[in-house]
Amino acid sequence: MKKILIMIVGCFFTSLGLYVLKSASLVTGGTAGLSLSASYLFPISFGVLFTIINIPFYILSYKKMGKEFTISTILAVTTVTVLSSIITTYFPPLAFHPLVGSIVGGIIIGAGVVVLFMNGSSLGGAQILSITLQKQFNWNMGKTNFIFDTIVILIGMYSIGVLRGFYSILSVLIVSTMLSRFKEQIAKRNTKPVKVTSTEPILETSSM
């Protein structure tokens, strides 16, 4: 029950941060940003694209991170989708300067993502890739996430313009910096303990 509540808190922060970015007319990184950018180019809804793009990452997650992490990630993605819809419907409309929106939104999203990672979950896409590379090769999670998200935002510049694209990159940099700050704790939380399977007796030594 505690794990579910923590996941909801992380999802709420993430959804709120996305709302702030949207209020500043900025885009985000990850598969959400990629899906949003693709929806402008193809006659396919955001929800369908978001689901399709995440499928390969779910498979990677299942193979590298296990069943529990993958299920938790799918639930987190679904929760963020629902909470984002609720916030957009019932929260008062906001208007942020792009610089303020990128900083505030980045900090809030970063907090939400860190909470999710520390709770053994993620929001799919690049986050699954980042934590897998961190676990397998000790690659810096924040840098990997930043590179992927920056590429996504560069694609999104086609629809929001260059200036707002750079503001969006700033928000991604903030999120990535927060991930890097907590990378060791996240890695420990998502590393399965090695079970001792040896049946050899433990020899005791006595002093003479």
From TrEMBL:
An example of a Gene Ontology cellular component annotation for this protein is: plasma membrane
This protein's membrane topology, according to the annotation, is: Multi-pass membrane protein
* Compartments in which it is found: Cell membrane
Source taxon at top rank: Bacteria
Q: Which Pfam families match?
A: YitT_membrane
Transmembrane annotation, as ranges: 39-59, 71-91, 103-123, 144-160, 166-182
Which coarse location class applies to the principal site listed for this UniProt protein?
Answer: membrane
Keywords attached to this entry = Cell membrane, Membrane, Transmembrane, Transmembrane helix
* Name this polypeptide is given: YitT family protein
